[in-house]
Amino acid sequence: MSEYVICINNKGNPASLIVGKVYRTLPDTEAQVHDLLRVIDEDTSEPDGYLYSASIFAPIELPETAKQALAVADA
Predict the structure, then answer these.
(1) Pick from 40, 46, 50, 65: CA 20 to 30 A from residue 28's CA?
(2) Largest CA distance in the chain
(3) What average pLDDT does range 50-65 have in this prediction?
(4) 44, 24 Cβ separation under 8 angstroms
């Protein structure tokens, strides 16, 4: 799975996810077995992210400069 995804559906999670926003994922092989993604969402109080259905995201590849900018923003 891509390190970054874009939210394509926030039904059931409007306070946590914004459609069209890019989110960083964290590796979680157990979650992937269950078609889930561990995502750093709007609730930054949980550094380990939250699990969401993979179907509400689309994987994306970002240019290196964008990855660096997002890494700084997450810090």
Answers:
(1) 65
(2) 32
(3) 94
(4) no
For residue 34, the Cα-to-chain-centroid distance in whole angstroms is: 16
Contact 59, 5 (CB under 8 A): yes
Instruction: For residues 17 and 43, give the distance between their C-alpha atoms in angstroms, rounded to a whole number.
Output: 9
Beta bridge partners of 25: 39
CA 40 to chain centre: 5
DSSP per-residue string spanning 29-66: HHHHHTTEEEE--S-TT-TT-EEEEGGGEEEE---HHH
Q: What is the pLDDT of residues 6-45, one digit of tens each?
A: 999 999 888 889 999 999 999 999 999 999 999 988 777 7
Q: Amino acid identity, residue 34? A: H
